[in-house]
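#lab-general

N.A. 3:47 PM
ok so I finally got the sequence cleaned up, no stray characters, all 637 residues accounted for. can someone with queue access submit it? mine expired

B.Y. 3:52 PM
send it over

N.A. 3:53 PM
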Amino acid sequence: MVPLWKAVLSESLLGSLASYQAPNASIRLFILAAGVSSSLLVQTVTWWSGNSLQRFIRIWGFMLGKIMLLVLRIWYTSLNPVWSSQAANTVILIIGFIAAAERIYAGGDKRKQEANKTGNAIRETVSHPHWLLSGIAFGSLMFLTLWIFGEVSLISRWAVSGHPHTGPDPNPYGGTVLLGLAHGLMLSFWSWSSVISFAWFLVGLASSTGLLYLHTWSAAVAGNILAVFTMCVWPQLAGRFVSCLHPGKAMSTAMFAYVLELFFCVWCTAYKFVPGGVYTRESSHLLLGFIMLCIGVDFLTGPKKDLSSIFEVKSNQKPLFKRSKNYIKLLLWLFVGVGLLGLGLRYKTYQKKLGQGVPKRDFSAMIWPFRFAYDNEGWSNLEGSANLLDQTDADFITVIESDASKPFIGNNDPTMWLGERLGFYTDFGPSTRDHTWGIMALSRYPIVKSTHHLLPSPEGEIAPAISMTVNFTGKLVDFVVAHFGNEEEDLDRKLQAIAVSNLLKTSSKQVVFLGYITSAPGSRDYTELIENGNVKDIDSTDHDRWCSYIMYRGVIRLGYARISHAGLSDSEVQMAKFRIPDHLDSYADNDRIVTDPSQVPEDIHFNPRFGSYKDGHNYEQIHHFHMSTPKYFKQKN
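B.Y. 4:20 PM
back already:
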């Protein structure tokens, strides 16, 4: 008879995977929570039962599983296939069901024998009573691995800067992170003296500092060294963790530390919206320092041995351990090879897509707050976002709230994903370590140069901006994109408007502004941009706006449209069409508004896929023109 608790736990664990297919976010959250709880119970029982060889293989299986997940995310362009693909989720669910069924029903007698040996499992290891220290250290190591190495593009996004000196691009240089993690695991097979261990910890500490404070390539090199250090200490800290005499206390402590550090990470960026946020504002350095301290104490006070040596190996088991190590190394490098192949194929495909923009003097620009690609039902929908962006035929796109390179948002890279999917040049915007919610730029044409800005934000959330120059096949146009703070932060918005107006003022004679400024038309901040920034509103007659604005100077306006979000975000798309004048000193802007598309040339029409002119809001769940658009501009007769 199969024990009821095993069946219940296994079904709950599988349910966490199946939660992706739940009908709504509330049910998904409930099922996922139950599944995570069950998986931790199963993991605790698995790691603290069985003989030494079994436990050794299980722990290494867990670590290799992390490498395999990174490889899968490479092939899915930074997304976790379990949470982003219905087909992948179904396949993994089936595999999980088969494995769980085999574990429950097969080998009943064997399980009884193993259960009799379970009481001796901990005694087969070099046991210790320090569950509190080991639990905190292991939980911190788990969080560090997720936070910085949960996806191979993250290091690049911590180190990123403006064009042309952006630092290493996540594809293909994410491969160096994968190699660093693999080499760290290989180093873990060595035994270390106390002096070498201390020196190695200092190297790890220095590399974490470098990742925080250095820039571009220097920060990336520091991040890769930290990758080697992190995976090098994994087997030792995991072995010390499962050697604790109190499994329940150790695992509970580890998960408490993990969750506490995750919340602190949230508080560092979302400080304006959480209690006590004033004390954690932009404090990632404190979090990383605490994590490294916890890891270092456990690393330096524990046995300086590889994982197999932590278990008391009988002489007749040593050949089995040696053979297992060889298989582990073989699997590790097989995973790495598959990952590098995926990066290479993606890079080759992406390079073929770039530079496909045809020479022209008309271009379109759009702005969209897409909330990290989560729709209004709480589902990640990058594919839907890409389809919408593609259908607009925009040549230049800025996306607000785009930095999902955080563990509490998804640890993925929408900028890279959209760039590769659409074949656009990309600018990530201010780095992940700058504690903004992100702002990205996508361009069909090459980005000549760009500068990332953190706008003055003394009271509220950090406001990001980018100033850049795009080469429209020989014609250079400047763009300034920005995301202002919240309406409640009056001082912040005032200072941010002044800073952006100065950027506009010092830009070239041809500049387009795309911004999310949380102010009404005619307000103080709006006037600051128009007057001191020396730009014009794309449609000064549109008084029903609040957040998104398009302004320009030195180009000719051709069209203006607002497209409903259809539940894909909580904000609409705004876009405009412009013409680059042949002679900057002698051109006339279009000053007449028309709503009949037949009055303007067909080549400047917006995509009819979004319908036709519509007054007021569009409440249907389809992307459609609304708010008295589209409008076109022509000269008065």
